[in-house]
């Protein structure tokens, strides 16, 4: 126990924000899904093994129960039927990293899989916050990507698959755009993600990470909305960002129910359904506290003011921004791995360094503000 506590303290001392791994570049054909996964697995083998090893004990506990084995088998069959190409990407990651495919799929479907045994589910995934506004003067979304310490190693991926081009800041060992701090494509479509939890799981629906991976392929707003509206095994929250047409919508999904909130006023979102009626939804203290704290603060009129809110730490038990300081002050939640500003006015995405209220930019990405026309030569 003492050694475990010492290890955790050493890990906490080493963490500021996410640890950015070397960038990943891939250029391949439209159907090179396995090859994409293989290249990622080879590039980030050590980080993938470390992350999966941290999640493996809980996954093995689930996967060793007959009820959960049946649940997992049905989820696998659904994804093999609906998105076989994305399972090929995971198989490629498995081959490249040497990590068992079953465990990689389990990590990607961890929230959906957990419904088979609530007592064995990992600590509630009550993390990530967004504050967005799109009016005649400003159009932006700011996002805190929160997570557990084992998930802190992220990498920038710039990928071309045939005519598709997309960028993501991603977790090692997961589908691009599935577990990501930011993602956008060459059509000027971007998104951020927040966990939300309906009370049940429907194994005939897709896992949230697979849906958001598909969003990277969307060629326009209507196609992106259709992807979001697919039946989910559980649910998810999407901030869909259209840089080409300067618009933002917030989507909440629970199974085959979906709500869209067009953003024209400042709107804060955490980890519970706010626009969709979902009886029996799973909520946590962190989300409740963050929502309450956001209501206490001045409504932001600019991106800088919204970043101030995302950096707030006045609620010591469940702050909006989580770092070494917040944990020293009594933070009972997780860690903010990255903070992001999506600026639709300027066609720019900023990956922030440290507390976002300080306004320090670590990395900037340019996003197309007009759709790309594909020319075949």
Can you lay out the helices and strands and say which pair or pack?
Elements: H1 2-14, E1 19-20, E2 24-28, H2 33-43, H3 45-63, H4 66-82, H5 84-97, H6 101-108, H7 110-113, E3 129-134, E4 139-147, E5 153-161, E6 164-171, E7 180-185, E8 189-194, H8 208-215, H9 221-228, E9 235-242, E10 247-254, E11 257-262, E12 267-269, H10 285-296, H11 303-310, H12 324-328, E13 335-343, E14 348-352, E15 361-366
Parallel strand pairs: 1-5, 2-5
Antiparallel strand pairs: 3-4, 3-12, 4-13, 5-6, 6-7, 7-8, 8-9, 9-10, 10-11, 13-14, 14-15
Polypeptide structure, described:
With about 375 residues, the protein is α+β, with helices and mostly antiparallel strands. It folds into 2 domains: about 100 residues, Penicillin Amidohydrolase, domain 1 (Orthogonal Bundle); about 240 residues, Penicillin V Acylase, Chain A. About 35% of the residues lie in helices and about 25% in strands. It is built from 12 helices and 15 strands. The strands form 2 sheets. Strands 1, 2, 5, 6, 7, 8, 9, 10 and 11 form a 9-stranded mixed beta sheet that branches. Helix 2 packs parallel to helix 5, helix 3 packs across helix 6 and helix 4 crosses helix 5. The N terminus is likely disordered. It holds the Pfam family AAT. One of its GO terms (molecular function) is hydrolase activity.
